[in-house]
Every structure is written in C-alpha cells, then in structure tokens.
Amino acid sequence: MLIMDTLEDEGYTLEEAADGEEALQKIIDTNFDLIILDYMMPKLTGIEVIEKVKLLENRHQSKILMLSAKSQQSEQEKVLIAGADGFMSKPFSPLVLIDKVEEMLRG
User: Fold this and answer.
1) What is the dihedral of CA 66, 69, 75, 80, to 10 degrees?
2) Which segments of the chain are extended strands (E)?
3) What is the pLDDT of residues 46-104, one digit of tens each?
C-alpha cells in the first residue's frame, strides 16, 4: 500500500498483482516502463518472474526493480544476475523509492 500511495501521489499510473503468476501475465500483456517486483511473492517469486520475462521472445524492454527484505550482498547479486536493473532493500523511505524510480526511468 505504501508503494502504491507514494508513487500515485507522484503522478505515476500503477497496476498491482496479487501474486507472481498474475504479475507475469500482466507483464506479458502490457508494455510497462518500470516493473517493481517483490522478491517473495506467492506462486512465483520475483526471481522466477524475471527469469520467465527474460525468456519471452517478444518481451518488452521494461526496467525491473526488485524489492526485498533479503539484503545480503549475495541476494542482491542473484537478483541482478537474473536480470533485474535495480535492487532496493526493505524497509526503505518513500523518498528513496521515488528517487530510485526516477533514476531508473531516466535510464
């Protein structure tokens, strides 16, 4: 909820998924500028979603930001190797999230 409220207040249009399978289907169906995934989601983890997105033949060139309470360096490396463009450890401040989103969208 905090993420949705924070980014909507900044003028971003968002879609939410209840689990990894729903997230993957939305990613397949829609061209997003930025995808924000949680590492630990029901049905498919964030890593599994990234791996499946990267296998899509006609995949979109969306940036991917992974959020996780797993903040060890090895977990961050695993996320980036899987194909995420950025990583943020939980908890984080809304201002840091806004800065990271803006940075990733600028390229």
Assistant:
1) 10
2) 34-38, 63-68, 86-89
3) 999 999 998 886 666 889 999 998 878 888 999 999 999 999 999 999 999 999 999 99
Query: What's the pTM?
Result: 0.91
Q: Is the pLDDT of residue 41 over 80?
A: yes
Tell me, what DSSP letter sits at residue 87?
A: E
Domain boundaries of the chain, sorted by first residue: 2-97
Alpha carbon distances (Å) from 31 to 1, 28, 47, 49, 72:
23, 8, 19, 15, 31
Helix (H) or strand (E) holding 38: strand 34-38
Cβ-contact 38, 22 below 8 angstroms: no
What is the 8-class DSSP label of residue 43?
S
Go through the chain and tell me how many residues it has: 107
Strands 86-89 and 34-38: unpaired
- The Cβ-side half-sphere exposure at 37, using a 13 Å CA radius, reads 36
Torsion sign over Cα 18, 24, 28, 34: positive
Class of the 2-97 domain? alpha beta
